Amino acid sequence: MNETDHGIKPALLTETTTVIVRGFDHTCRKCRKPMTCVVAVHAEGARQSDDWVWFEDKHALSFARDLLLRAGQDQLAAAIKERFSKTADESYLSNGCPHCDAIQGDWPLVR
């Protein structure tokens, strides 16, 4: 859309915002090795967990994976991918173990 379309001018980005991707140290339920599950994302100034986007939302988990890739955190980003869950009887984007690739599930987090 350009300026002549409905009289709207495109916005100019003048500021940058630092985004934090939060991880949760976890032990894989299958191989018992230590790992990190990506659990939330938030703007740098958000100090309370109520202001964070938690990863019960699959779009948020996808966004976190993209942010991690852009930040060069390839190994952590690679652990987030679509996997099949026997419990859910479907595939969905999930955290997985970087050692054995076991799905870590869509378990609720205590904040």
Strand coverage percent: 25-35%
Tally of helical segments: 2
Major sheet characteristics: 3 strands, antiparallel
What form results from the Cα inertia axes?
Answer: elongated
Count of β-strands? 5
Q: How far apart are the termini?
A: 42 Å
The SSE string, one letter per element, is EEEHHEE
Uncertain runs with pLDDT below 50, 5 residues or more? none
Name the average pLDDT. 83
CA-based gyration radius: 17 Å
Give an overview in words.
- It contains two helices and five strands; from the N terminus they run E-E-E-H-H-E-E.
- The chain has 111 residues and is an alpha+beta fold.
- It has a domain of 77 residues.
- A three-stranded antiparallel beta sheet has the order 1-2-3.
- A hairpin with a 6-residue loop joins strand 1 and strand 2.
Brief synopsis:
The chain is α+β, with helices and mostly antiparallel strands and about 110 residues long. It is about 15% helix and about 30% strand.
